[in-house]
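May I ask for a single protein's sequence together with how it folds?
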Amino acid sequence: MTAVPAGARLSRRARSRAQAAPKVGRSGILATAFLFVCAVYFLLPAWWLVVSSTKGPSTLYSSEGFWFSQFRFASNLTGLFSYDGGIYWHWLANTLLYAGVGAAGATFLAAAAGYALAKYDFRGRQLVFSVILGGVLVPGTALALPLYLLMSKVGLTNTYWAVFLPSLVSPFGVYLARVYAEASIPNELLEAGRIDGAGEGRIFRTVALRIMSPALVTMFLFQFVAIWNNFFLPLVMLSNTSLYPVTLGLYTWNNEYGQAPQLVSYVVIGSLISVIPLVIAFLSLQRFWRSGLAAGGVKL
């Protein structure tokens, strides 16, 4: 038997790996270039916001829009948090309260409703689900005036409840929870819990919610972002500036630009600061986006 030199074996392995490696064709290059252009397009507003937050009122419009010209980030940040008695802190806290508590409550209610629609058979179930699907198609701005009339009847306008209570309703969350529960929660697992003597509430809390955790995180993030960016509902409901969310507060400052020119810089840097909690929420919750948590739960 003739021995094969080590160098020849290595060269053969290199050739086999080169042959097995996927070749990037023209379509792959075009797809990569298209995605790069899309990434630049979506990142340009964020870059402009970062650059503009370092400029003063005099150079914000007169300088190059996408590059630094006057670094006043520290003074802008100090002015933002100290202007009008530090009301921006109050607006930020209000927004965290509206979005955090509202998204958590909406997620739990949507999960319970979706689980019931998916796993319980009752009369009118499909009709209820069809009505919920119809609610997904209704824009939030169309509901602002009816909600205002409803809240004014019960005396809740210009209160935290006027923004908080509508935030608990999430038709899209119910739809997502129903679809996910129907596809991921085996009926055999629920029957096993009932045989062991667990009640329906305990099965929902200990079994269903854990299996539905990826969908719950998705629902929470969707609702959190929707409440955080909500503008029209607080505009209609609230007149007390101490109850404003950050979106409505920055809007009022933008309208007062003629009286206080420095407000234009505070609006820009305030918008930048208001984006940071959304980024933190996405980065901290993305690890929970996992599927297949029920794998192996049922033996077929």
